[in-house]
Structure prediction request, 511 residues.
Amino acid sequence: MPEETTRRLAAIMMGDIAGYSRLMGADERGTHARVQLLLRELIDPTIAEHRGRVLRTRGDGFLAMFDSPVEAVRCAIVIQQSMVGRNLELPSTQWIRFRIGVNLGDVIVEPDDIYGEGVNVAARLEQLAEPGNIYISGGVYEQIRYKLVCGYQSLGDRKVKNILDPVPIYRVLPDPAAVAKAARSRKVRLALLGVGTLVAVGIGGGGWYFWERAWERHTEAIAAGTQPAVQSAPPLAATLPVTATPQSAPASTAPDQSAPSTAAAPAAQMQAAVIPPRVQINQPEPKPTVAEPEMIPIAGGTFRMGSTEDPSEEPAHNVTVAPFLIAKYPITNRQWRECVNAKACSYVPNGGDDAPVSNVSWDDAKQFVAWLSRASKHAYRLASEAEWEYAARGGTETRYWWGNAMKPGLADCKGCGDPVQPEKVGTRTANPYGLYDISGGLTEWVEDCWYKDYRGAPADGSSRSGVDCRERVLRGGSWRNDASYVRTSSRDSYDASVRYPTHGVRVARSP
Prediction:
């Protein structure tokens, strides 16, 4: 065996596009361009973010290897949920939907490829998976079942081509709609391990994306309104079997033709998962009083925005910002829960009251500021990108608000001292304008659409809009980023509808 060839235990992910030939037949050039864009913008960076490595890609799929099965499944969930957001505005005939299989096995590793039965099993799982779904082997399930907040539907042991022994297969159920649908007919396990697990998920890697709003719209589109409503139930800290009967399914619901033969399991073996409570989004009556964030008045002025350190920050340009107010601290869990209690915010946060709210999408942040404006009778909003940078600089022109060199203890990031997931706002030194946690800690959403650089950006401090604004801007870096991300000019982007554990929010308003 060549010296560069070794054997190792790895988590293998295989993915391909369902209906690729049909899509190519309808629009060959457009489909190829879309798939290549997905590989560059979604697949490759998401796999890298979850400590994986892409080994090969083909026209309609990819093969990747991970050290951790937890990271592999997290990565698969992010890919599938991100694809939902990308498909939402398109007719269903143009949807790109991946099938993903994840297996844990001993494989032969060469510099640019892997081989062995472990890879073959991942390929068989991917082929069995329904479009938009993730199938995992029993070995993966045993490793992750108490480490991720999601459901698992047992599909039984399946005999697959060229594999000697039957393979236990599980379907990952990443959202309430998927759990409810599966619970009508088959055994479901829901691992919901409480706040401790949620914190561990955020620390351990890619985090948990519970993208309820966009996923609901997607599943409703697929089911054409036939999905049953999910009944609220108290969240549990363990797997809870609940006996279900075949009569629990609506009479008009057709059987799942693509499911394995375990669909005929006796009713005594069927289990329904308990779903955490879901908040109905209503328009509440404004409260007479609300605990408004402490705001810092910013006088406004002209400053040099951007830098030459990254192409996305070019060209540096002069911007004149009008006076505005910005929150002294990021929004906390306590403040966010007021919105939840008013039934105006759909995302329910975990963690201590004084910790900054995390794992929020841009859409979540907009829900919060809309509620806060109604409840307080003040016009709260997200800051524009220019306002945020102006406030974060605090009147300085250096790389960081304290100077050009990193100083330990002034920011919460890798390389800034000891990075920790924020447990309380205001624990580090404020910048010259009196703003806390503006560098590191949590990356903060701003109003602007994402553009790859500042060409054409407004010079009056207003936010930058766009026709197709799927991605929004994030500023400030987080405790999981290195020091380059906490520079006052550094900028990042993310899908507006997707939640991520290091994303938070700070509000602003005009005088």
